């Protein structure tokens, strides 16, 4: 956990342990949240994210889930291809105006 400008950040291990205390430990969200010093809504959010995708939950800052990484890669590739196409269109227009 880090404290910086009023906003705390929690690592993946902390989040998973908090969720585990609720799901496997049979404890109430409010009790776990109070004992860890976090807001219960935050713990509910972590629990929901973990239940939706246990393996891909809490990827960390700057890290994306594999599907999101692939989507971002394809979006970059698409943008590059569009830019190359526009360059080729401009080159074609220039060369078609000045025949030799």
Q: What attributes does this structure have?
A:
single chain; 100 residues; mainly alpha; Arc Repressor Mutant, subunit A; 2 domains; two-stranded antiparallel sheet; 2 strands; 6% strand
Q: Helicity level, as a percent range? A: 55-70%
Radius of gyration (CA) equals 24 Å
Query: Helix and strand string, N-terminal first?
Result: EEHHHH
Low-confidence stretches: none
Briefly note the CATH topology name of the largest domain.
Arc Repressor Mutant, subunit A
Class by alpha and beta content:
mainly alpha
Distance between the termini: 69 Å
Instruction: Give the total of beta strands.
Output: 2
The number of helical elements comes to 4
Largest sheet: 2 strands, antiparallel
Count of domains: 2
Q: Can you describe this structure?
A:
The chain has 100 residues and is mainly alpha-helical. It folds into two domains: 1-62, Orthogonal Bundle (Arc Repressor Mutant, subunit A), CATH 1.10.10; 64-100. It is 65% helix and 6% strand. It has helices at residues 12-23, 29-36, 40-52, 66-97, and strands spanning 2-4, 7-9. Helix 2 packs across helix 3 (40-52).
What's the topology here?
Layout: E1 2-4, E2 7-9, H1 12-23, H2 29-36, H3 40-52, H4 66-97
Antiparallel strand pairs: 1-2
Helix pairs in contact: 1-3, 2-3
What does this entry show, briefly?
The protein has 100 residues and is mostly helical. The chain is 65% helix and 6% strand.
């Amino acid at each position: 956990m880090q404290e910086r400008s009023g906003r705390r950040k929690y690592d993946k291990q902390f989040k998973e342990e908090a969720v585990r205390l609720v799901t496997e430990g049979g404890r109430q969200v409010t009790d776990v949240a109070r004992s860890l010093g976090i807001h219960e809504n935050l713990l509910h959010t972590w629990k929901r994210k973990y239940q939706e995708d246990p393996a891909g939950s809490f990827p960390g800052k700057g890290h994306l889930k594999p599907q999101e990484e692939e989507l971002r890669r394809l979006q970059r590739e698409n943008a590059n291809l569009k830019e190359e196409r526009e360059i080729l269109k401009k080159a074609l227009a220039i060369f078609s105006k000045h025949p030799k």
